[in-house]
Every structure is written in structure tokens, then in C-alpha cells.
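Batch manifest, entry 17 of 40.
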Amino acid sequence: MPLAPTRAAFSPEWTANDNTITFIYSDGTKLEKTIKTGETLEATDIPTLNPVEGFDVAWSVTDFSGITGSTTVNEVRTPKEYTITFMDENGVYKTLN
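Output type: C-alpha cells
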């Protein structure tokens, strides 16, 4: 006698992957944060950067929403630009950018 077909119910399970966000400071120091795929790294979890005289300092990545994989984020230092104006009693002598 042939066997009657049976039906099996399957429920897919999905486990979010762990991703590593590696922050690298200009001196080579590394700080790693682990976050699940699709999650957002909160502002309070992003390492702070110390100010550097004469430079604007920021991370190379600023959007940490909906993480999809591991990534490296570097400290970026951009020299500040200044305008210097030399003046004498007659007014502006020369301006340097």
C-alpha cells in the first residue's frame, strides 16, 4: 500500500549577523563596537574625538543607521583656513588667505 503524502510546516528563522564597526584614531588607536545587521549605532555609542588646534576633526563616516556589514571608520583632520588682513593707519594693506 502506498504511503499517503504528508505535509510538513517549516518556519524560517533568521538571526541577525554581528558586525564590527572599527574606529581608528589618527594615532592608530582602535576602538571596536559590535552591532547587529539592520540596527543603528546611537550617537551616544560613537566615540568622541578630541579637538586639535588648527584642524577640524571628524569621523570619515557619519551615518550609522541600518548597518549592513562591518566597516572601518577613520579620524579625519582637515586644516582650518584663516584669512589674515594687514592694516596700517591708512586702511587695508594686504589680505592673505
